[in-house]
């Protein structure tokens, strides 16, 4: 099976080459049939040119560069992941972050679990064996409440859906419509996959806080987008169905 590694980048000039090398060396060493699809989004530093020059020397790297849309404001990691996933060619897709937060050792286990029959498998910091590493405790609190709320409202059977790091079958992505433009893409995809009957699994992973570069994380925007997502999904999947059943 072919694996597509999709990596979002925004102003990651200090990380992008290290990350692309890390993933390509890992994939070569483990003998995977793979492609890497970095998606750079309106970077104002040297990220774009660095990715271009790396891809010219590496025939498994197929970079995408999002066009500037004057209407767009704020974070568009979600839109980037959607666009890159649509254009990728793998049977199994892995979303992994460009600031080198994710442990490469987890890739193989995610792939194996999907090959055993799971549809979407998360790199999980909050299940036994996983670790949030040096992630700020305040941030860790907010990243875990999202999953807790999803467990309560939708019975999502895993422990870390706010981390975008995961692998999934192409068929899952093809059968779900995703609408979040920013970081809320991570819980949106997980909850919709679960509510659509796909089998979710998880692998413990160790998270590493970014060492270089500037964070795109904005706490209040994240809370607002998560709450609006959860309310919408709760209405769409629970209340509307109850109303329909009673009518
Ligand atoms: N394509 C794209 N990538 C983005 C965007 N915002 C962030 N990213 C990338 O998505 C990944 C996650 O963003 P981060 O800034 O690390 O967000 P975070 O992990 O919540 O915060 P940190 O504490 O800084 O790690 C990184 O690889 C970013 O470069 C965006 O608008 N578009
Ligand atoms: Mg990060």
UniProtKB/TrEMBL annotation:
Superkingdom of the organism of origin: Bacteria
Glycosyltransferase 2-like domain residues: 4-176
Coiled coil: none
Protein name: Glycosyltransferase 2-like domain-containing protein
Provenance organism: Candidatus Gottesmanbacteria bacterium RIFCSPHIGHO2_02_FULL_39_11
């Amino acid at each position: 099976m072919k694996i597509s590694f999709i990596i979002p980048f925004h102003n990651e000039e200090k990380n992008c080459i290290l990350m692309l090398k890390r993933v390509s060396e890992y994939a070569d060493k483990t003998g995977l049939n793979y492609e890497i699809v970095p998606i750079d989004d309106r970077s104002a530093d040297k990220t774009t040119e660095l990715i271009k020059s790396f891809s010219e020397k590496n025939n498994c790297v197929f970079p995408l560069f999002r066009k500037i849309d004057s209407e767009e404001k704020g974070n568009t990691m979600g839109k980037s992941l959607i666009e890159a996933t649509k254009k990728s060619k793998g049977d199994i897709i892995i979303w992994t972050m460009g600031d080198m937060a994710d442990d490469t050792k987890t890739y193989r286990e995610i792939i194996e679990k999907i090959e055993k029959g799971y549809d979407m498998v998360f790199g999980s910091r909050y299940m036994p064996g996983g670790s949030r590493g040096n992630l700020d405790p305040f941030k860790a609190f907010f990243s875990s409440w999202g999953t807790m709320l999803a467990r309560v409202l939708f019975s999502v059977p895993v422990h870390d859906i706010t981390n975008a790091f995961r692998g999934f079958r192409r068929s899952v992505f093809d059968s779900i419509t995703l609408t979040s433009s920013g970081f809320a893409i991570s819980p949106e995809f997980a909850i919709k996959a679960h509510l659509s009957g796909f089998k979710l699994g998880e692998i413990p992973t160790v998270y590493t806080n970014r060492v270089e570069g500037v964070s795109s994380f904005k706490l209040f925007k994240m809370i607002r987008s998560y709450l609006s997502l959860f309310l919408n999904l709760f209405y769409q999947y629970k209340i509307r169905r109850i109303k329909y059943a009673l009518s």
